[in-house]
Amino acid sequence: MSGGEVLLRAEGVGKRFGGFVALQGIDLELRAGERLGLIGPNGSGKSTFVNCLSGDFAAHDGRVTLAGQPLAGLKPHRRARLGLARTFQLPQPFASLSVLENVRVPLLFGGEAAAATPRALECLEEVELAGKAARLPRELTQVEQRRLELARAIALRPRLLIADEAMAGLSHAEVDQILALLLRLNAAGTAVIMIEHIMRAVTEFSERLLVFVAGRKIAEGAPRAVLALPEVEDAYLGR
Ligand code: ADP
Ligand code: MG
Fold first, then answer.
1. Which residues surround ligand 1 with Cβ inside 6 Å?
2. Which part of the chain is the ABC transporter domain (predicted)?
């Protein structure tokens, strides 16, 4: 579901760690409601790019706007309030808080304390975890932990959800659960950036695919066309 207007615009985003250039010259224009896939070998800068968008890292170079508003200097919770949500490759729940309390946290920080409990329950319904609201995160299965991570991300009704390897380590059927969930969120209007190694899922999901190699964007376009490019095949075969 893509609308017309540009939701996220990144221009020349770059990030260094000491002398190591992890990301360089990344441009991206994402439309409201778009489904974008981001692929690339391990270490190609996908998570670093997400961290620069979310404010978890300060980018060294470039400019990012969300619905026209510059994000530079805004902390992650400020960006979340503006509608940008992300999940972490390794789920990061608060271990000592219940499943429900974990989803209440972003609502408390996001200025929606009054409605935190009903909204958190609604999110748990959305990811089919309402029956486990009182459990601790460690009592959940792996796919349930992924769904909790998504429930926490969608609590503030983001305009953009970035899912960083939300399907890693899951079975075929579990991948389909997460895929269906992301498609449902997208159908309700949320733009989604899916970072994924599971080609079947990312190809089926994405309207457009970006490919990162060694911190640069090397290809962009319709999934099947992009995957057929020799330079993309080379990147994956390590040639
Ligand atoms: P991907 O998500 O595509 O697998 P990352 O963005 O995690 O790749 O990493 C890109 C590169 O940046 C890797 O070489 C990684 O080791 C490096 N890197 C990522 N985060 C840090 C960090 N916090 N400190 C130092 N190097 C980092
Ligand atoms: Mg990563």
1. 17, 22, 40, 42-48
2. 8-239
Q: What is the CATH number of domain 6-83+158-237?
A: 3.40.50.300
Q: CA 61 to CA 192: how far, in whole Å?
A: 24
Place of tokens 């890292």: 57
pTM: 0.96
How far, in Å, CA of 237 to CA of 239, rounded? 6
Q: Which two three-digit tokens encode residue 185?
A: 């969120």
Question: Where do the structural domains in the chain lie, given as residue ranges?
Answer: 6-83+158-237
Give residue 234 CA to ligand 2 midpoint distance, Å. Answer: 20
| C-alpha 99 – ligand 1 centre gap (Å) | 29
Q: What is the helix (H) or strand (E) element at residue 39, kind and residue range?
A: strand 35-39
**C-beta of residue 11 within 8 angstroms of C-beta of residue 63:** yes
HSE (side-chain half, CA atoms, 13 Å) at 143 = 13
